[in-house]
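We treat protein structure as text, and this decision shapes the records that our systems exchange. The tokens are whole numbers drawn from a learned vocabulary of local backbone shapes. Below, we set out a record of this kind in full and without editing:
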Amino acid sequence: MRLNSLSGRFAALTIIFVLLAEILILVPALSNFRLNFLQQRLERAQIASLAVLASDQAIAADLEEELVRNAGVYNVVLRRDEIRQLMLASQFLDPVEETFDLRDQTIWVAMDDALRQLFDRSNRTIRVIGEPVNQAGQLIEITLGTEALRQAMIDFGLRLLALSAAFSVLTALLLNLAAQRMILKPMRRVISHMSTYASAPEDERSIIIPDARLVEIAEAETALASMQRTLTSALKQKDRMAQLGQAVAKISHDLRNILTTSQIFADRLEESADPKVRRAAPKLVNSITRAVNLCETTLAFGRAEEPPPTLSRFPLAPLVAEVIEAEALLATGGEQSNIVDYVTDIPPTLVIRADRDQLHRVLSNLVRNARQAIEGTVQPGTIEVAGAENDNEWCIRVGDTGPGLPPKAREFLFQPFSGSVRKGGTGLGLTIAAELIRALGGRLELLRSDEEGSEFLIHIPRAMAIRTQRETTAI
């Protein structure tokens, strides 16, 4: 049992505290022992004086000396019938230095006298006054030396300390055994489970099953089990995302080739004789171009990191109009939804600095989520996109009058595969949007979500942390 272990320190503290408690009761115990010692001397002296009273004639000097010696005193004075009489006397002639009256001593006075007596090494002569037992007189006085009293007190104190030390060691051993069984053994079990889990964190069989009887240990095991389940789930999700990333990279590679071919054919639509086709061709080309860029970005992300945004200055209103027009075409039935109204509140002169394609993706995700939420209720609703700016940042607000997000979705809102509330949804839209805004040095936050709808706010700082050399002006 080492002192740097919990059991060793527990045992050491137990011994220290028990000894400290014994020291605290040592002073009252010594005081009580001193009073008993003096009371015994008074009783012995009374018995010796009664033997003298029983004799009708004077006793011999040697007998008187023997009675005084057996009583442990120098002389005895007994007061009877208002007469003070010297009953026994020895040849000791030292003067009396102090008088103690045991008839009216308080506990504090008695403890003070005991301490002074214990630390006074000189053999002083004291007078002790007390009441005779069995009403054998009015009072009895004795004189005696303090050396025997002090030595008796020292012997008693040493015996008490030795007994206390023995009890301390025994108590410490018993407490240590109890601690080993009730506390340390469950703790070692928890530590063993932690080590086992650390070697295979993806194995659910290594998750601890709480079964401790102690409330504190049971709470610790429950918290550990919850943490292990969360970590195991996160590791499995990480593996699924890694596998998904590989699959998406393969799909994006082939999809890029298909879209590149489609882009070539879309360019030829601009030469069509149909004016509607010629007007729709540039939008089709732009959509295919963004799809190709997205595929290339996905492939780049699969190899290393997503490339930094290409910053440019552009008016926000046309971009929002483009997003809303695209979402309207994707509405129910392939035509503009009859139950969703789109409202914009963007100053025509508002120009922001960001990556236009990435911001298009962010707004498309937010508006699409709002449209799908409203369509899910089969009730008319409104989607509003507003923009503003101040000295520090540009702000874009996207709000809807849909049913709002449930608590679970709000808790895992920006976590992949966790924040979706739509059947068949992946939960990646808001995750991607938040990451793209962070890449611009800004943040995406949920302002509110209740039965009256949801509202998101995009913050894009003017003083961006990201700087690139590929910055253009497209106004």
